[in-house]
Amino acid sequence: MQELVIWLNTKQVALILMNKKSTHHWLKYSGLGIQMVVTMLVCLYIGKWVGIKFDFEILGTLIGVFFGLFASIYGLIKEINN
């Protein structure tokens, strides 16, 4: 009877650990969307600033947006692979 109680407790502990692991997994990726948006906005701002400085505002903005897009996707892929 005592072995059965130990086995049930071990199983319950395993379930608790699995739930903690899945919660940690969810929390690990919860900030990726915010990170992507911030990266894109910073690159947009820098691209717009460079465009104004060299009188190519539209081109600078486009370069900033595309660089931000690629940088945020690169960060996303890098984080998912880890």
Mean residue pLDDT: 79
Number of helices: 3
Uncertain spans: 1-7
What structural class results from the helix and strand content? mainly alpha
| The number of domains | 2
SSE map:
Layout: H1 2-29, H2 32-53, H3 57-81
What does this structure look like?
- With 82 residues, the chain is mainly alpha-helical.
- It has 2 domains: 1-30; 31-82.
- Helix content is 91%, strand content 0%.
- It has helices at residues 2-29, 32-53, 57-81.
- Helix 2 (32-53) packs antiparallel against helix 3.
- The chain is rod-shaped and about 70 Å long.
- The model is unreliable at 1-7 (pLDDT under 50).
Quick summary:
The chain has three helices and no strands. The chain has helices at 2-29, 32-53, 57-81.
Please name the defining characteristics of this protein:
3 helices, rod-shaped, mainly alpha, 82 residues, disordered N terminus
